[in-house]
Write a structure and sequence with these properties.
Length: 410
């Protein structure tokens, strides 16, 4: 069974809104063994939308639309579907009654244009949307299926995980099992070289792909049952882990910060951070993990030299002689945050994130990360590529990687 997704909205084409929904849909389709072969993005134009849907229907069994189901004149997905399926829009009084009831419960007045959301293609059935007023639609005609889902993420995800997943389970004839290994500290080319022979397999397939500061390796197999497919994935996963060794920090939904926090939790140890160029990003990354408060004590964002001195105890002589972006400053920041908080481990980050501020001696991308713990303090120097946000993200990940190595003794 093949599928295609069509994301609808001029804001997507202009880059004003990032399309995370299509990626979420792709993950769910893989779980049900549906081959997601094409993705399209089209603006709020009826003619182009209808053409995109006709193309999708010509080459896929199921076509998903994302967005364009609201009450305004530029919400054209319903009209695009009826044009592509050669149908008519019909008014559904039950849908309007439900919209009125939802708005009344929220104490929001019913506007006349809300009635547009009660129009649907004649072949469709309605998919409940508990978090919004625009219902989803499931249209089956001529052996093809069109499923329309709302664009707002808080409406899209529950519909995808609820009625849409239920439908996919009813029509799927197989599943795709996969394991994604997550790697920090080794580049994509070297990862590929270590796994080159495994990547030549047709089943399971092995594919590395680069992320900012990481490499992910996806091992995938298809079967009639999950256990059958996973039985082919598991031995390849074991072999890949053996070859890559300690640069594999986790798999699937693991993040570097969740893995590090779990390691510290098992040891009964605590953590604090001292940040300069990352501006609180490392602390935010850590606190995004549920339950982080039993390990993470807090942090200091010491952007100025004055705060590095007063809050972290960095000596004026260090700053005068070596500067804020230096091994010496990173060392004193890591040790200082341990003193200030009583944490077992202190992590520091200081560098030149850019785009300005670099010199020949200290170029943009130069970052020092320090880790202070019971067995002393270490500092690493890196020059990270990319723009400002890439440098900041790589700095955070490298600091966590350095901490993981220290704590685990790797």
């Amino acid at each position: 069974m093949t599928a295609e997704s069509v994301a609808v909205g001029t804001e997507l084409l202009l880059g004003d809104v990032e399309d995370t929904n299509s990626a979420e849909l792709g993950k769910v389709l893989a779980q049900f063994g549906v081959l997601h072969l094409h993705r399209q993005t089209v603006g709020d134009n009826l003619e182009r939308l209808a053409a995109a849907l006709r193309l999708a229907l010509s080459r896929s069994d199921i076509v998903f639309t994302i967005g364009g189901l609201g009450p305004t004149m530029d919400d054209l997905t319903r009209e695009g579907i009826v044009a592509a399926l050669d149908e008519e829009l019909v008014f559904d009084q039950a849908v309007e009654d439900e919209i009125r009831a939802k708005l009344e419960r929220r104490r929001v007045p019913f506007a006349p244009n809300q009635s547009r959301q009660a129009m649907r293609p004649s072949s469709s059935q309605v998919l409940d949307n508990p978090n919004g007023t625009a219902p989803g639609l499931l249209c089956a005609k001529g052996g093809k299926t069109v499923i329309a889902m709302p664009g707002p993420r808080l409406e899209f995800v529950p519909m995808l995980q609820g009625p849409v997943s239920k439908y996919l389970a009813s029509v799927s004839d197989g599943v795709i099992a996969s394991r994604t290994l997550k790697i920090v500290g080794m580049g994509e080319s070297l990862v590929e070289r270590k796994l080159e022979d495994l990547m030549k397999s047709d089943d399971p397939t092995v594919a590395p792909y680069a992320k900012t500061g990481e490499v992910h390796v996806r091992i995938t197999s298809r079967g009639t049952k999950y256990e059958e497919a996973m039985s082919r994935v598991s031995p390849v996963e074991r072999e890949a882990r053996a070859r890559l060794a300690d640069v594999v920090y986790g798999a699937d939904e693991d993040t570097l910060e969740s893995v590090v926090l779990a390691l510290l939790r098992r040891r009964g140890e605590t953590l604090a951070v001292a940040e300069s160029c990352t501006g609180g990003g490392l602390g935010e990354r850590i606190t995004s993990v549920p339950g982080s408060s039993d390990v993470f004590l807090g942090g200091v964002v010491s952007y100025s030299n004055r705060l590095k001195e007063s809050l972290l105890g960095v000596s004026p002589e260090t700053l005068a002689q070596h500067g804020a972006v230096s091994e010496e400053c990173a060392r004193e920041m890591a040790e200082g945050v341990c003193r200030a908080t009583g944490a077992t481990w202190g992590v520091s980050v200081t560098g030149v994130a850019g785009p300005d501020g670099g010199t020949a001696e200290k170029p943009v991308g130069l970052v020092y990360t320090g880790v202070s713990g019971p067995d002393g303090t270490t500092v690493e120097r890196n020059e990270f590529p990319g723009g400002r946000e890439a440098v900041r993200e790589r700095s955070q990940k490298w600091a966590l990687l350095q901490l993981r190595k220290r704590v685990s003794g790797a």
